[in-house]
Amino acid sequence: MQPAIRLQSAATRNASLERDQTLKMSTEALCVLYHDFRAISDVNLPIYAQKITAIIGPSGCGKSTLIRALNRMNDLVHGSRAEGQVYLDGKPLYENNVDVVDVRRRIGMVFQRPNPFPKSIYDNVAYGPRLHGLRRRRDLDDLVEQSLQKAALWGEVKDKLHQSGLSLSGGQQQRLCIARAIAVQPEVILMDEPAAALDPISTLRIEELMHDIVKEYTIVIVTHNMQQAARVSDFTAMMMIDDHRAGSVIEFDATNTIFTNPRDKRTEDYVTGRFG
Amino acid sequence: MNHMSYRRRNWRQTVNTFMLGLTAICTMMVVAPLVWILAYVVRQGLPALSLTLLTQLPTPVGVAGGGIANALVGSAMTVGLGLLIAAPVGILAGIYAAMYPNTVLGTSVRFGTDVISGVPSIVMGIFAYTLIVLPQRHFSALSGGIVLSFIMVPTLIRATEEMIRLVPSSLREGSLALGAAEWRTSFSVIVPAAVNGLVTGMMLAIARAAGEAAPMLFTAFGNPFMNTDFGQPVATLPHMIFVYAVSPYNDWHAKAWATALVLITLVLLLNILARLIVWQRARVLGSLK
């Protein structure tokens, strides 16, 4: 069995990947520039529905830039601009008539450091739904409970929903931020190193909850931690910088393949810990 | 070797002690006049300070009693009106300058603030005199309030801008990533996180404006009677100090000191309150990092 898989060409491997999956998002020749500096260049990345896609690579290779380009958070960075295109359900996101606010509602984001608002736990989760017009108390209560349950936090906070979100521990705050993102009922959730500031037990809880919620959402996660990518993701994109210090995806495949049988020598060196 | 490092340590300690002493002396040189002024005002003002002073109107020379009730009301009117005009403008402009620091408008707001806060308040007084008092052909609390709003706006813009900047940008990103528009983010997340700071800014602006005498000469002008009509001249605390102090009568001098004590106490209380709020704010925001 093993040699047969190894002999499969890259083209047939990708073709077989695409047969079983529906494409949720994709990037096409995506470049992001900060002023004249090209941070990422020519990125073509498929993101499959109801799957976890991990983006790995050494520091400074543009992982965060790439993930922040997917919901146009980079628009906030002074002097940044994107070339190429990002598609969500086949529709381009970088067009003049696209409503950025709507893009971010459909594509949620969880950040590296937990950033709960200085409001109560309840108000943190209810913030997004209220924003989008949900006012009825009963509906809000239900949605807050569901979201906290999905984020595996309900049991710990159900008796103190009106305490400040800042009173929680770091790991709990990050799950609160995930609940807050879920409450908007996005289609895609982007996670930019969501466990970088957490201890191993909190990290594990986040990974478990990602497994639980991926049935309903499409998840993209940036991680420094290769074990984490191997544990949680279905697909992995390996990024690396070129001679001009612009990052790009050098290999994309099923996570299993990336970690056991990568095509690119650099990927192999990276995942086996020879550098990075 | 050992001996050398010992000598070097000795020298280092000497320099350290000297520098520490120098900074301590300079600090005292700053604090001493403040304490001196306060102590002097208290010593001179306390004898004439009484409930009568706070509740009665000024009396003619030689008549016993008399106070500054009209000036307390007048100051409240002009400062209150000034704040009413300046607070929305100053706070919104400050929010803008903090959120869009690199835009043309953002930079010009900051530059304009610096320029305006450098303009002597008496010049502002003449400006308001030409603009409001001359066309109306009489002095008024209204013109006093407007000139105080000119003085408050730069303080408010600066304080607001700094307080908004203290709010971590991660909160802004967190809100935008949930599909919130910029204005919703500002008003639902950033301003509530900075609200104590905005209150502080207002208090500092009030404290600054309440002590202005020069522009009042051209606008509110002063009034020995009680007046609550914004269209008419009113007395204000700093102006009252001026009137009592330049008089040749001893009991009026005592009243000037007592009025000064009242004004200084009010301003000091506002400043202390503002500090307490900032201190509490820093503790709350500190837990975000």
SSE order of chain B in H/E notation? HHHHHHHHHHH
| Oligomeric state of the chains in view | heterodimer
Radius of gyration of chain A, CA atoms, in whole angstroms: 19 Å
CATH fold-level assignment of chain A: Rossmann fold
Q: Can you tell me the CATH class of chain A? A: Alpha Beta
Shape of chain A: globular
What's the CATH class label of the largest domain in chain B?
Mainly Alpha
End-to-end Cα distance of chain A: 32 Å
Structural class of chain A: alpha/beta
Tell me the total number of β-strands of chain A.
Answer: 11
Question: What is the tally of helical segments of chain B?
Answer: 11
* Record field, number of beta strands of chain B: 0
Q: How much beta of chain A, percentage-wise?
A: 15-25%
Put simply, the count of helices of chain A is: 12
Q: What can be said about the biggest beta sheet of chain B?
A: none
Instruction: Give the percentage of residues in beta strands of chain B.
Output: under 5%
Number of domains of chain A: 1
Number of domains of chain B: 2
Descriptors for this entry?
A: 276 residues, alpha/beta, Rossmann fold, five-stranded antiparallel β-sheet, disordered N terminus, B: 289 residues, 2 domains
